[in-house]
Structure formats: structure tokens, C-alpha cells
Amino acid sequence: MDFNDTPEEAAFRKEAYDWLSANAEELAPGKKRRGSLTEADDALVRESKAWQAKKADARWACITWPEEFGGRGASSIQNVIFNQEEAKFDVPPNVFSIGQGMLAPTIMAHGTDEQKQKYIEPILRADQVWCQLFSEPAAGSDLAGLRTTAVKDGDDWIVNGQKIWTTGAHFSDYGMVVTRTDPTAKKHAGITYFIVDMKSPGIDIRPIHQINGSKDFNEVFFSDVRIPDANRVGAVNDGWRGAITTLMNERAAIGAGGGGGVGMADLLRLARETQWGDRPALEDASVRARIADFYWKLKGLEYTGYRALTSLSRGQTPGPENSIGKMVGAPLRQEMAAFAMELQGAAGATADPDVTFGRAGFQGAWLGAPGLRLAGGTDEILHNILAERVLGLPGEPRIDKDLAFQDVPTGGVR
Ligand SMILES: Cc1cc2nc3c(=O)[nH]c(=O)nc-3n(C[C@H](O)[C@H](O)[C@H](O)COP(=O)(O)OP(=O)(O)OC[C@H]3O[C@@H](n4cnc5c(N)ncnc54)[C@H](O)[C@@H]3O)c2cc1C
User: Which CATH architecture describes the domain 258-376?
Assistant: First the structure.
């Protein structure tokens, strides 16, 4: 493991920092960046678009993309370095990460030349916002169980069904949708992947109100929606290949990201400022023991993160063990937030930012944590990945593996 930049990495870091300091304001110590996708509103989307266009003009947007698509052909470690430097500046959050991180790479790998021409540059510049229409009410972890259908009609496909948990559908211009096109084939085989214009007639987007007050994802209903065959990505019934490309990019993007939001510095400040009787809570042995427990787990995550960075720096791809970051990090952040709310006593039960420590940051983190433990692979799915692909334990029984999709037992649900 090597924690230091190579001379080339240090030079790249300086180049990135110099550009950022000439174009954005550096955050004061302890100050956090504004907003997040969960708070995305029109103004934030506009600000985020303007920052993205500025980066694109200077070729600092999507730097790992090949030069022909507007990137720099940068390495993954250079991307990490740029993101680390950008995090020091007060810039708007990137609300285009689904299009840029997951969907554009799928179009690059499986799209036609026309699709690449038409969509890649607007995604890079954030002129267009994209969403991912994969999950369905009965197809999440088991995405290949999807039931939204597409039936060929002349040069178009007619799509019917329902998607759910579609982040940003309400402000997206386009989406990538996976559909069932051959129910007589095995479940991974009869799937076709399309680009859909989110303003198409027959699309009904209904926001889902979340426990934390946000409405950042949606139910999306398709009723006889026409998608031109020219929008098909990959061959008919071969959409699983594209779906895997999208999901691999999603995993890589989430990677070691165990959560953000709640940090050790915030927790220590709270424990110092909270009075228990005539002394700070931090002086209580039980509080110190809990905080120490969180600390060593966070350190473990930090060093596991360095291991992934070291392999990127050596030109390798981090393996499935990279799932540890989210598998351990998301529940840990949830526990830390819950503990911080306990420390606040009765005030811990309110999320009013005007009366609560740290503008209710811990409450927000706690309310958002269940979503973090589901999105991009649930805790249990990550355990399965580690068990099967890292520890070599026997795989789960997959009883539907050799059946045609239409013959998979559903308990009567169709
Ligand atoms: C914040 C957020 C944003 C999201 N954004 C999007 C988006 O933009 N587009 C999109 O398409 N989807 C999105 N999703 C959906 C996400 O991909 C799914 O929630 C996820 O794949 C899990 O699917 P599910 O919710 O249907 O749960 P299910 O798959 O039904 O799982 C239910 C429970 O059963 C467990 N389980 C399932 N299978 C197994 C197994 N084989 N072994 C052991 N346990 C199992 C799960 O771990 C879970 O606890 C988002 C979700 C969240 C929380």
C-alpha cells in the first residue's frame, strides 16, 4: 500500500487544483459544500449545469472518457485525484452522475454511431439530464425479473409497464429503459435496452415522498409509449449485456462510498458541546467507548479505501472486495447518526434545522440511511458478492436459471 502521490500524480493534482482555484471558491475550513441530489431543485440543477459546462470547456468534465468524446483519456486514479481536489471547492453537486457515470459509458460500449453523435456531448456538457429506468416493483435486486414489455410495431416499439425508484425522472430529458421483449426466452435472454425521450406521450411520472421530506425519486408508468427502433441500444433480446455495463459502472461509481453526511469531526464536536450534568458528554466513559468503536471502524474503511486507490494507481481494477466500503460504511453511518441523535436527548427527535445541532445533519443522515443501504446493491446482495466472489463460498440456488421467463413460478402474479 502506498499513500503518497507519484511525481506524475502530484503534478496532475497541482494542475487540477490550479484550474479549480482560478474558477471556483475554495471552501473555508469546516464549511460544507452546498446541496446534494436529494435537495435538487430547479435552481440547483441550473447551477450544476453551468459548472458542468465550464468544466467541459476546459476539458475537466468526465476526464476518463476518450478524447474523441470530449474527455482526456485520464486514468481512474487521475479521476479520483480530480474529485478529491474538486471536493475542496464550493461547487454545486453533480446531478448528472447517472447519465455521465453509468449511461454514457453504456452508449459508448453498445450504442450506434448515430446515438454516440447525438447523445454523448450533451451528456458531457450537461445540456441533457438522464435517468435510469431499471427497477420495477417486483424487479430490484433480481433485475432480470423485469416485466415492462416492448412489442415491435413497424419502426417503433410500444412499451407498457411500471418502473420505480427512478432518481431524477422528474427533471430528466432522457432515460435508459430495460424491457421484456421475449417472454419465451430464459429470463436474462429476452430483454432489450432502449433510450426513451422522457417527454414522450404515455409517460406518467409520479414523485415518491420520502421520510426525509425529499422527492428525489419517482414511479414512472408507461402506457403505450412509442420508442423508435433507432433508440434501441444493442441487439433485440440482448439488452442484458447493456444492463450489465450500466450496473458495473454504477458499482464502480458507488465503490467505497459508504455514505458521507455524518463525520467523526461532527460527532466529536457534538459530544464536546452537549452537557451531561455539569460536564461535556465526551467525558463520560460510555460515550467515549462508543466513539472509539466508530473511530476504528472508520479507520478500517479509510485504509480499505486506500487499498482500492493503490490498485487504481498501479493501473489495476479494484476487485469485488471493494463492496466492503458500502457494506460496512452505510450501516456504520446510520449507527453514528442514531447515536448522535441519542446524545441530543429530546432535541434528537426533531429534524428542524433551526433548533437542532448542525442544522439537523445527523437527523438527515439517519433518515437517508435506509436508502443508502438499498441503492446500488442492498446489504444482503453485497454480502452475497463477498461470500461467492471473494470467499469462494457456494452460490445461492438459482431455481429459475434454466426456465423460460414465462414459466418462472410467480405465485400467480403476472
Ligand atoms: C436512493 C435510491 C435511489 C435509487 N435510484 C434508482 C434509479 O435511479 N433507477 C433504478 O432503476 N433504481 C433505483 N433504485 C432502486 C434500487 O436499485 C433498488 O432499491 C435495489 O436494486 C433493491 O431492489 P428492491 O428495492 O426492489 O428490493 P428487493 O430486491 O425486493 O429486496 C428486498 C429485500 O430482500 C433482500 N434480498 C433480495 N434478493 C436477495 C438475495 N438473493 N439474497 C438475500 N437477500 C435478498 C434485499 O437485500 C432486501 O433486503 C434506487 C434505490 C434507492 C434506495
Answer: Up-down Bundle (1.20)
